[in-house]
Specification:
alpha/beta; Aspartate Aminotransferase, domain 2; single chain; 5-stranded mixed β-sheet
């Protein structure tokens, strides 16, 4: 079954058996508990909504199918998924290698919360595979990757790093939020676990917060499933319904996101008020060849540095169609300044070292008409351009 078909049908097959209603769309099951006829036999396998819910099961099945995984687990947010993963697989004294360019909220979770429980994190430039291998210690247990990264759109070689991880008996986790399962499948490249913020492209309409973990290893799934129930950071049935609905148009939306982002990246890359554009679809991107190898498209995310002739805050305030807001992956275009918004929790010294400076802007390209988006950017450039003598 091809991707677009799976995105519509998997997990929502109509129940045409006797007693079934033939629902084309999975109902929103609001029950918090389920009656049983015998004390040791939960009806239909359900006993309590935190442990399992029919609407959530439909979503978990679909997400697993889209990532070519054996199992799917849904959570109340992307950070809820990440926290549950860490608590399920790591213990006091364990070491984690992390791609240094990643979502600010993930880094905040690692440095300000999980580090308090005795976990150690090393941040490396994973664009160079040898940096990951050289960071391995005796207590290393896990390698955490984003590719493409947030917000600099860097890539790492998933296949090569996963091979190194397996040689050292380490677990490889890939945050696949930016690419979505339509453009990239890390499990196919050797990764052990995929995480998503389903708030983003999978939901796709800026109306639901959620997260997911996808895995094929039975032992890892058992640990994660136990902790999904034990910790309880699960999504509501309505949230599951919204993400299910969003996935049905994922392929169509990603094609348009991808098309629009490339057009805007090309426009920005030749603009006299832009220093540099970060987008793996550009031939000038240092990892364009790797992107073509491990992705089927380049995604809807890009970032760019405005030059000294533009005041970043003035520019953001002049946009009319593109909204100044956090988050990404929705049908509408959103822009932000990572240094003061999504990555503000990282120290200025570390932001500057990585390249998250005040003149860096992150653009989540929506599915509007690309000419309207281009015109919006251009008028904002002209209105915010500093007059020099």
């Amino acid at each position: 079954m091809k991707f677009s078909t799976k995105a519509i049908h998997c997990g929502e097959e109509p129940n045409l058996k006797e007693g079934g209603y033939g629902d084309i769309v999975t109902p929103i099951h609001l029950a918090t508990t389920f009656a049983r006829t015998e004390i040791d036999k939960p009806t239909g396998g359900y006993e309590y909504a935190r442990t399992g819910n029919p609407t959530r099961k439909a979503l978990e099945r679909r997400l697993a199918e889209l990532e070519n995984a054996k199992y799917g687990l849904a959570f109340a947010s992307g950070l809820a998924a990440e926290t549950t993963l860490a608590l399920a697989l790591l213990k006091n004294g364990d070491h984690v290698i992390v791609f240094e360019d990643l979502y600010g909220g993930t880094r905040r979770l690692f440095d300000r919360t999980l580090a308090n429980f005795g976990l150690e994190f090393s941040y490396v430039d994973a664009t160079k595979t040898e940096n990951v291998e050289s960071a391995i210690k005796n207590n290393t247990k896990l390698i955490w990757l984003e590719t493409p990264t947030n917000p600099l759109l860097k890539l790492c070689n998933i296949k090569a790093i996963s091979k190194i991880a397996k040689a050292h008996n380490l677990i490889t986790v890939v945050d696949n939020t930016f690419a979505s399962p339509y453009l990239q499948n890390p499990l196919n490249l050797g990764a052990d676990i995929v995480v998503h913020s389903t708030t983003k492209y999978l939901g796709g309409h800026s109306d639901v917060v959620g997260g997911a973990i996808l895995v094929s290893n039975d032992e890892l799934y058992a640990k994660l499933k136990f902790n999904q129930n034990a910790i309880g950071a699960v999504p509501s049935p309505f949230d599951c319904f919204l993400v299910l609905r969003g996935t049905k148009t994922l392929a169509l939306r990603m094609d348009r996101h991808n098309y629009n982002a490339l057009k805007l990246a090309e426009y920005l890359s030749t603009h006299p008020l832009v220093e540099k554009v970060n987008y793996p679809g550009l031939k000038t991107h240092s990892q364009h060849t790797l992107a073509k190898k491990q992705m089927t498209g380049f995604g809807g995310m890009l970032s760019f540095y405005v030059n000294k002739k533009v005041n970043p805050k003035n520019f953001l305030g002049k946009l009319k169609i593109i909204a100044l807001a956090e988050s990404l992956g929705g049908v509408e275009s959103l822009i932000n300044q990572p240094a003061s918004m999504t990555h503000a929790s990282i120290t200025k010294e570390e932001r500057d070292r990585i390249g998250i400076t005040n003149n860096l802007l992150r653009l989540s390209v929506g599915i509007e008409d690309v000419e309207d988006l281009k015109e919006d950017l251009e008028q904002a450039f002209q209105k915010s351009k500093l007059i020099t003598c």
